[in-house]
C-alpha cells in the first residue's frame, strides 16, 4: 500500500482579499514538486469567495472540471449558456472543457460567503465536444453509505454525472464509531480522500478536518470515524 498524507495546514494558500484559496496540489502561484497531482487528479481547491465577487470570463481546454458548493450560492455562465446557472449546496456541477470553453463563476449572494471545492481531472480523451451538466443530491443518501456523484461517461451508472475519465467521485457522512469498507475499482486506481469535517482513522493515520490522504496499491481498506465526519472521495487511475 502507498499512502500520501496532506495536512490541512500544509496546503498552498492564497489570500486575494475577495478569495481565500487552499490548494491541495500545485496551482497558480503555488508550486510544490511533491504535490503536482495524484494520478489523474490534478487540482483540488478549497475556496471561499466573498459576496458578489468571483472569477471573470476565462478559458479552459482539455480538462474535466467538477465543482461542489458547500455553502452559499454559486452562479456559472459559459459560452454554451447565455443565462446564469445557479448551483446550490447539495448540487454538483461538471464541465468537460474539451476543445475549449469560456466561463465565469461568481458568488451569487450579496451578503453570504461562498464555500466550494473545485476539482480538475485529466481526461482520457482529448478535444471532445464541450459539455455541461449539474445535478442535486440528497444528504440523506450519503448517511453512513457511499453516495456516488460522478463516474465515467463510458460507465452505465444511473444517477451520476459523467466525465471523460475512469473516475469515481463520491461522498459519505459517517456517524462516530461507524466504519466504511472501501474497495477500489482496480489495482490501477488510487483514491484521494478529503476529510470535509470530523476525524477519521485509516491504517492508524489520523485524518482531521480538511486533512487529506491518498491511497493506492491496495484492493480495499477500512475507514473508522472517530467523530461525526464527512468525506469526499476521488478515485482515479494512477496515470
UniProtKB/TrEMBL annotation:
Binds 1 Fe cation per subunit. This is Pirin family protein. Fe cation binds at residues 58, 60, 103, 105. Residues 150-236 form the Quercetin 2,3-dioxygenase C-terminal cupin domain. Keywords: Iron, Metal-binding. InterPro entries: Pirin, Pirin_N_dom, Quercetinase_C, RmlC-like_jellyroll, RmlC_Cupin_sf. The lineage of its organism: Bacteria, Pseudomonadati, Bacteroidota, Flavobacteriia, Flavobacteriales. Pfam families: Pirin (PF02678), Pirin_C_2 (PF17954). Residues 11-121 form the Pirin N-terminal domain.
